[in-house]
Design brief:
The complex is a heterodimer of chains A (600) and B (147). Chain A is 50% helix and 18% strand. Chain A has 600 residues and is an alpha+beta fold. In chain A, strands 1, 2, 3, 4, 5 and 6 form a six-stranded antiparallel β-sheet that branches. In chain A, helix 1 runs antiparallel to helix 8 and helix 11 packs across helix 12. Chain B has a five-stranded parallel β-sheet with strand order 2-1-3-4-5, with helices on both faces. Classes of the chains: A alpha+beta (600), B alpha/beta (147).
Chain lengths: 600, 147
């Protein structure tokens, strides 16, 4: 026997499989967790930034509105000074030169303040050494609007002709008592100062504000980049569109530069202005990105650590398992003395102990089995010897009894009376009967000792042959034989023929007294097992005695009624038992009998 | 030409008596030599032991051989007969109570010419004995003597 089966090479060992499993699980969990966390945090962060930007925009808008309104109120108050009104009514605005300069000096929100006549000619200016005095401003939008409405008016931001700086012109018309226009006071609210005030608010890292006049498609009034002041709002995004429509809100939208921005926007109260507070998404989500980087790193490190630890523990677990495997292999190949040595003080150590205990038990069982086999062999030999002696020694005296009885009958015929001869005949009959009984016993013993062969046996064909023989032997009997076709079984053909012969012979015997008989050989299925049966409609028997039927020499009918020794069913039972099957009988007096049997 | 005779190897005196009686009754008058055990049978055939000096060439026409014998059993006797050039071809009928398959197979393998089972029924037993005697002594042509 091959003592050592070579180790099999597995494509993937247990350890590798487990490590890969752990790594995959860690990665999947880490990945899902990362994605969920990132998504959640990104969304939360975005919402936070949007809300914050809107709040900042609201604040800035309020501030801008208040700032401008304060300046405008101051300008209106200046325009209503009696000296200013007087000079205008007298059409001598040049006299206001000093007052204008003084006012401009204290009003830091203004770049310029000038007075104009009804024709739009600048008559005096607070700007020192203004070169524009005497020039006409009638082409200015603010002038035309003020002349048309006679109301104070904030014009579209322009570059001041007087100072060359960007301003938000505010014009206050001066009327006489009849409501006739007598002149105009126009101040240029400094967009540089305003822009500085708006832009310099700390909106947070990477966040900027933009203030726009919404008239005429939008003009930038306040911006981090001073060069962009007074330029048109370019590449209109959704925030601008909605501002132009007078809405307030916070959205994520694509800027003209192509990147995504988080924008809070709101109109400036009481002014045709709108303010936006803008954070590029990349800036807003920068913390998240660093978080992703960190968590990816942590996941990778975790996988490495888990992999190493896992591998270490797997090895600790699998090494003793491999030992156990080798031990099992050694046991299986006959090294019954081999024991495994596991020092672990845990379940695996216990497993090793149990394995050794099992091996001990196995060895013991093996020994028992060996002894049992020896005993069995011995008793078989004894049985053999017994059968031989029965066959030989028991028959010899019977032959003598029968033989010498006959000698007496022949040689002393004249000396014996009728009764004496009759007794001698009975002695002979008894001896012969005993001879038959011995033959039957031998038959039973031979069936028990016979060395079985397993093959596929055609029971239907066998039953047909036996039936033909029985019919040939008893041509006077009228029997209808019904044999189910193609019934096969795995078993010994010789023994099965003996069994079927006995069963069918019985059936013929016990239907012999009926004028016509029906004998059936077939099979049914019961609990997934094939149950064969031999059924007759003959004498039958009382089921009360059914249990006696299979004992040798047990008969339920007298020998004169039906001949036979009563060994047949005992032989059939042994054959069925040798095939691992069961046998039983159902019957009723004069209604026939059915013998059922299985063959496993 | 010597007289034809039968060698009956049988230890049971009852069987010997019944066989002899049957043969006589059926007018088979030839000489019948009886050996009571295997040793005696072998001694007789090969002129050894108590049969020392007997003419070895004077062989029986047929041997009726029981299997269960004291000292040397029937199968061993059969083996020795078949192993000796002088007796190799002798017709041998196994006449026994045994119907064991093993006995039959071994007997035929060792070169028995016939195997007859002694029936219990004396009537049948007589028939068989008579038939045997008639067949082997009268009908059967014995092998030519080689030596």
């Amino acid at each position: 026997m091959d003592v050592r089966t070579p180790h099999k090479r597995y494509r993937l060992g247990l350890v590798t499989q487990l490590i890969i499993l752990v790594a995959i699980v860690t990665m999947v969990i880490g990945g899902i967790l990362g994605i969920v966390l990132t998504n959640t945090s990104a969304n939360t962060l975005k919402q936070d930034v949007l809300r914050n930007n809107l709040a900042q925009a609201d604040l800035a808008a309020q501030f801008a509105s208040n700032y401008v309104k304060a300046v405008q109120a101051s300008a209106r108050s200046f325009a209503s000074r009696p000296s200013v009104v007087q000079a205008e009514l007298a059409d001598t605005p040049e006299k206001l030169q000093l007052e204008l300069s003084q006012y401009l000096q204290i009003q830091v929100a203004l770049d310029s303040i000038s007075v104009y006549d009804t024709q739009g000619i600048q008559r005096a200016s607070g700007v020192t050494n203004a070169t524009t005095i005497g020039q006409s401003f009638a082409d200015r939008e603010w002038f035309q609007q003020a002349v048309a409405t006679l109301q104070p008016y904030g014009g579209i931001p322009v570059k001041s002709r007087t100072t060359g700086k960007p301003v938000f012109p505010y014009v206050v018309p001066i009327l006489d008592e009849q409501g006739q226009l007598r002149g105009l006071v126009t101040c240029g609210i400094s967009l540089g100062t305003l822009s500085d005030a708006i832009v310099n608010i700390n909106y947070g890292a990477g966040t900027r504000a933009s203030l726009n006049d919404l008239r005429g498609g939008g003009i930038i009034i306040a911006h981090v980049d001073p060069a962009r002041i007074l330029t048109a709002v370019s590449g209109k995004n959704e925030a601008i569109t909605r501002l132009l429509a007078g809405e307030r809100g916070a959205i994520e939208t694509r800027s003209s530069g192509g990147e995504m921005d988080l924008i809070g926007f709101t109109p400036v109260p009481d002014l045709p202005w709108g303010i936006m507070v803008i954070t590029p998404r990349s800036t807003a989500l920068a913390p998240i990105n660093s978080m992703i980087l960190k968590s990816t790193l942590i996941t990778l490190i975790s996988i490495l650590v888990v992999g190493f630890l896992g591998g270490f523990f797997m090895l600790r677990i699998t090494r003793p398992l491999l030992k156990l495997r080798d031990a099992a292999r050694k046991l299986a190949t006959g090294e019954s003395g081999y024991r495994v040595r596991l020092t672990q003080r845990n379940e695996i150590g216990e497993l090793g102990n149990e394995f050794n205990r099992m091996a001990d038990a196995l060895t013991e069982k093996e020994l028992q089995l060996h002894n049992r086999a020896l005993q069995l062999e011995q008793s078989n030999q004894e049985l053999e010897a017994f059968a031989y002696s029965v066959s030989h020694d028991l028959r010899a005296p019977l032959r003598s009894i029968d033989g010498f009885s006959q000698v007496l009958l022949e040689d002393y015929n004249d000396k014996l009376d009728a009764a004496g001869k009759n007794y001698l005949q009975r002695v002979r009959a008894a001896a012969q009967r005993m001879g038959e009984l011995i033959d039957d016993l031998l038959m039973l013993s031979r069936v028990t000792r016979y060395e079985m062969k397993q093959e596929k046996v055609d029971l239907s064909a066998l039953a047909g042959e036996v039936t033909n023989e029985l019919q040939k032997a008893q041509p006077e009997l009228k029997v209808t034989s019904v044999i189910s076709g193609s019934l096969t079984a795995n078993g010994d053909a010789h023994l099965l023929r003996i069994a079927l012969t006995n069963l069918l012979d019985n059936a013929w015997k016990f239907t012999g007294k009926h004028p016509d008989a029906r004998i059936e050989f077939g099979a049914t299925q019961k609990d997934g097992q094939t149950v064969y049966f031999v059924r007759d409609d003959g004498a039958g028997f009382d089921m009360e005695y059914a249990d006696k039927l299979f004992a040798p020499f047990q008969r339920l009918h007298t020998a004169s009624e039906f001949p036979g020794s009563g060994i047949g069913l005992a032989i059939v039972q042994r054959i069925v038992h040798r095939h691992g099957g069961k046998i039983w009988v159902e019957s009723e007096v004069e209604k026939g009998a059915t013998v059922y049997f299985t063959l496993d | 030409m010597k007289n034809k005779f039968i060698l009956l190897v049988e230890d049971n005196p009852d069987d010997v008596e019944l066989i002899l009686r049957t043969l006589k009754k059926n007018s088979i008058a030839n000489e019948i030599v009886v050996a009571r055990d295997g040793v005696e049978a072998v001694d007789f055939l090969f002129a050894t032991g108590s049969y020392a000096g007997r003419d070895v060439s004077n062989l029986p026409t047929v041997i009726l051989l029981d299997l269960k014998l004291p000292k040397i059993d029937g199968l061993e006797v059969l083996r020795r007969i078949r192993n000796d050039e002088r007796t190799k071809l002798l017709p041998i009928v196994i006449l026994t109570s045994s119907r064991e398959d093993n006995d039959m197979i071994t007997s035929y393998k060792l070169g028995a010419n016939s195997y007859v089972r002694k029936p219990v029924d004396f009537t049948q037993f007589s028939e068989a004995t008579k038939a045997l005697g008639l067949f082997w002594l009268i009908w059967n042509e014995p092998p030519p003597i080689i030596l």
